[in-house]
Amino acid sequence: MSEEKETETTGMDARETKADAKAAKAKAKALRPWFKKKRFIVPIAILLIAGVANVANAGDSTPSGTAESQTSEASTEATTDSPAESESAAAGIGDVVGEGNFSFVVNSVECGIASVGSDPFGEEAQGEFCQIRISVENTGNQAEYFSSSSQLVYDADGREFEADTTAMLYLDDEDAVWIGDDINPGNRIDATLLFDMPSGVVPVTITLIEGYFGAGVDVSLI
Predict the structure, then answer these.
(1) Domain architecture of the chain: domains with CATH
(2) Is 219 within 8 Å of 208 (Cβ atoms)?
(3) What digits encode the pLDDT tens for the residues 107-129?
């Protein structure tokens, strides 16, 4: 019996020793600093890796505003150049321009005319008359109406002047067109237009229009 008791005692001592070892290990694990514990180490490591990747990407990327600013500068340069290019390409005296089914040519400009006609049949200008001679050809397939009163002149300040059709009645000119004419396909007329403008004011542009409702085409007079 003594041997059995001794064996039992020895077994109990071994189990107690093993339990004590587990308890000591658990205590040591519980008392381990927080920064050495796996549940803290893994998330921190992931955050550090993500932060390094973001810094690297930020260093390699080009600022988003750079491309936009370059595009904006190029657009500004193109816009700045456009007016000069348009002015250089504008039609002038002697050039053929199209408007609807009409083909126009401005042949000459003469200003400083004080009056037209003669007493008692004549007209004095409020300022002075500018006389503009043009040719109009119908390039379409049907008759179109040309109205002298639809043609408009502009000065350097952008002021608009209408043709003086009353004064045009007194022109001693075979090409004078008072109100307008029908022009058949393929035919051409020559017209002399009068514009009553302030003395010394120069007509800069004329807008030539087909009929009454055309879009108009501009011709430089200087």
Answers:
(1) 96-220 (2.60.40.1240)
(2) yes
(3) 999 999 999 988 788 899 999 99
pLDDT, one tens digit per residue, over 35-52 is 444 444 545 555 566 565
Is 97 in contact with 91 (CB distance < 8 Å)? yes
Query: Which token pair is 116?
Result: 């037209």
DSSP 192: E
First to last CA, the chain: 138
Query: Two tokens at 51?
Result: 């932060």
CB 86 within 8 A of CB 78: no
164 with 173: CB under 8 angstroms? no
Separation of alpha carbons 193 and 153, rounded Å: 10
Q: What is the 8-class DSSP label of residue 25?
A: H
Q: What's the token pair of residue 44?
A: 């921190």
Q: What is the Cα–Cα distance from 164 to 195, expressed in whole angstroms?
A: 5
